[in-house]
Amino acid sequence: MAKKLPSSVLISGVKWRIDRPRKIKEEGAACFGKCVPEDFTISVQAGLRIGRAWDTLLHEIAHAAWHMCGADKALETLDTSSDAARDDFEEGKIADAFRLSYQGALRELGLFTLPGD
């Protein structure tokens, strides 16, 4: 039996609340999950099969990690006239987000361990 979703998770040292509303909308469209960085909340639709719920939670943790590493703010200041510069920037920030934030959240959830943990 798969483990049920937690009520919170630490991402880059910040506690994010995980809620389970019956319905979620993002930009007017129905979706399985949503990340709200302004109040450190991740929503995962209630009633999903446990595998889909975990997939959705991990997807939303990736969005939260993106925000926590500052990539969203830095991207706003990037000169987007150069596609190559934007692609290089995004790749580096995504790598940092996963290394620093996503990995820590997965460790806390018991889904990832490093030698010596």
Task: Output the keywords.
117 residues; alpha+beta; Arc Repressor Mutant, subunit A
Describe the structure.
The protein is α+β, with helices and mostly antiparallel strands and 117 residues long. The protein has a single domain (8-108), classed as Orthogonal Bundle (Arc Repressor Mutant, subunit A). Helix content is 44%, strand content 19%. The protein contains three helices and six strands; from the N terminus they run E-E-E-E-E-E-H-H-H. It has helices at 50-68, 71-77, 83-108, and strands spanning 8-11, 14-19, 25-26, 29-30, 33-36, 41-44. The strands form two sheets. It has a four-stranded mixed sheet with strand order 1-2-6-5. A two-stranded antiparallel sheet has the order 3-4. Helix 1 crosses helix 3 (83-108). The longest helix has 26 residues, at 83-108. The mean pLDDT is 78.
